[in-house]
Amino acid sequence: MSIAVSRAKKVRRAGLLMTVLILSACSILPKPETLVIYQLPATPLSTQTDTVTSHALPWSLRVTTPYSSQVIDSQRVLVVPEGSQVSAYSGVRWSDPAPVLVRNRLASAFRANGQLSSVSIDHSGMDADFELGGDLVAFQAVYQNGFPIVRIHYDASLSQPGANRTVATHRFEATEPVQGKDAPEVIEAFGRAADRLAGAMVDWTLQHLKNAK
Predict the structure, then answer these.
(1) What are phi and psi of 78, to 5 degrees?
(2) C-alpha to C-alpha distances, 202 to 9, 112, 115, 118, 194, nearest whole angstrom
(3) What is the CATH number of the domain that holds 120?
(4) Residue 18 sits in which domain range?
(5) Distance from CA of residue 37 to its chain's centroid?
(6) I want to staple 75 with a disulfide (CB 3.0 to 4.6 A). Which of 93, 98, 156, 169 is the partner?
(7) What was the pLDDT predicted at 44?
(8) What is the pLDDT of residue 154?
């Protein structure tokens, strides 16, 4: 009987020791990062253009996803605190990679303008008279004199796929100061900069399409 009691005590002690070891291991494991996912903020579409003329131009346009570096082609919210060092805001992510965010913003801006017969994106598989694409060179916050500024740089190319020719190219850059230093304020500045970029690219594209044949 004493042998059985002794064995039972050893089993209980082993169980207690295992519990302590498990709890100790849990306390030193890194806690999973809590992510906040942001969409790219946008000005209400009804206020993006002064006048909307339904299908004033007989052309269809396909907006393609711009090319970018591997650093930019991600869901991280990038920041360049100084020099050429690239970092990212902790705990926040975009809802899509940056090139997709820009493509969707441009397509929405053209649709809101309403002057083209149709607007599609590259994944739709639809044919189009003209195609707008290019290179997304910068999509990040940078620090100037200790304050963050959002910078978007897009080298655009307007082409005519059917004729296999480039109609025009242009460099677009939009900057927007951040009203603060926290992540939500940085996200809002990205939205304002993207609105400015989209507005400029819509005007430029339509100007060339008005003279197209």
Answers:
(1) -85, 150
(2) 79, 10, 10, 14, 12
(3) 3.40.50.10610
(4) 1-31
(5) 11
(6) 93
(7) 75
(8) 98
Which tokens is 149 given? 């500024």
Residue 118's pLDDT is 95
State whether 123 and 26 are in the same domain.
Answer: no
The DSSP string of the chain is -HHHHHHHHHHHHHHHHHHHHHHHHHHHSPPPPPPEEE------GGGS-S---TT-S--EEEEPPPB--TTTSSSEEEEE-STT--EEEEEEEESS-HHHHHHHHHHHHHHHH--SSEEEEGGG----SEEEEEEEEEEEEEEETTEEEEEEEEEEEEEEGGGTEEEEEEEEEEEEE-SSSSHHHHHHHHHHHHHHHHHHHHHHHHHHHHT--
Residue pLDDT, tens place only, 8-58: 555 455 555 555 455 555 555 556 668 999 999 988 754 444 445 556 899
In terms of Cβ atoms closer than 10 Å to its own Cβ (0-12, 13-18, 19+), residue 128 is buried
Q: What is d(CA 32, CA 106) in angstroms, rounded to the nearest whole number?
A: 35
Predicted confidence (pLDDT) per residue in 102-150, tens digit: 999 999 999 999 999 999 998 877 789 999 999 999 999 999 888 899 9
Single-letter residue type at 152:
I
48 and 15 inside one domain:
no
